[in-house]
Amino acid sequence: MSDQLTARPSSPPDKRVADVVAERIERLISDNVLKPGHPLPSERVLTERLSVSRSALREGLKLLRGRGLIVSSQGKRSVVANLLASAEQSPMLHLLSTQARTLYDLLEVREVLETESAGLAAERGTAADHVLISRRYTQLVKARELNLDSVEHARLDHAFHIAICEASHNPVLVHTLSSLNDLLLSSVFASLSNLYHRDPQRSQIDRHHERLYRAVSNKQREAARRAAREHIRGIREALLEIEKEEQRLVRATLRLKGDDAFAV
User: Fold this and answer.
1) What 3-state DSSP class applies to 219?
2) How many degrees, rounded to 5, is the angle at CA 6 between CA 124 and CA 14?
3) 133/219 Cα distance (integer angstroms)
């Protein structure tokens, strides 16, 4: 993050230094370098990196507080605000979180967004992005080896996909996925809980993750898009097949009970 905080060439003279400070920090928030809920670097670091005085920095932070982008409390560092927070959960999010069929709707959304983010990550990802993606993938592989519980495994799986999305360097795409973070994490947990204990599905998920990781790391845009698409579709198809199996089991059980009712 330090490199991205380094001061840029001087801005037009008609702009106040405080405005320039605010714009630069806004860009870091927009690019998800400074994330919601995370504290800003110290005043000393910010003044050095932005090459401004403490008074100009404080005035810039005041502008950001007025815009609702950061929040401050006495004696503590300013923190990036939750840009997607609302006083109450929206009716749509409540509906999505309480309906079982939402899982398939979420997988459709994931296919669209993650296919494109994987392609962009392969095309635009920097060396720093690749380090983070590699770190998240390594953690995911270790989770398989350590046989972690489904909740922790889902968190690491989700973090791997988010790292790829952030490497797309498309702030709108990143914030769109972030706005659905809880629902998407739930979809990952549901997928792993239903599939990962089955050998064929576990092998398929692991294989798809490896293909996605290698395609993005090797900057193969179309291969990355294909790997992401096949991964999400594979999960959806596997879940639908399990659902069909359960329905067949229920029908067979009902027929058996009906036949037993005629037994003497």
Assistant:
1) coil
2) 105
3) 13
Q: What is the pLDDT of residue 161?
A: 95
How is 173-198 classified by DSSP, letter by letter? HHHHHHHTHHHHHHHHHHHHHHHTTS
Mean pLDDT over 202-210 rounds to 95
Q: For tokens 């399990």, name the residue.
A: 242
Residue burial 52-67, b: 16+ Cβ < 10 Å; e: rest: beeebbebbbebbeee
CA distance 58 to 46: 10
Looking up residue 16, the CATH number of its domain turns out to be 1.10.10.10
Report which of residues 102 and 63 the model is more confident about: 63
Among residues 56, 45, 77, the alpha carbon closest in space to that of 11 is found at 56
Max intra-chain CA distance, the chain:
98
As a dihedral over the C-alpha atoms of residue 154, residue 90, residue 40, residue 34, rounded to 10 degrees, the angle is 60
Give me the phi and psi of 152, to 5 degrees please.
-65, -40
**Residue 264 maps to a domain:** no
Q: Which candidate, 177, 157, 45, places its Cα nearest to that of 112?
A: 177
Residue 163, domain extent = 91-259
CATH number for the domain spanning 252: value is: 1.20.120.530
DSSP state of 83: T
Q: Is 0.85 surpassed by the pTM of this model? A: no
Q: Are strands 79-80 and 70-71 parallel, antiparallel or unpaired?
A: antiparallel
17: Cα separation from own chain's centroid: 34
- Contact between 212 and 118 under an 8 Å Cβ cutoff? The reply is yes
Instruction: Name the DSSP class of 15.
Output: S
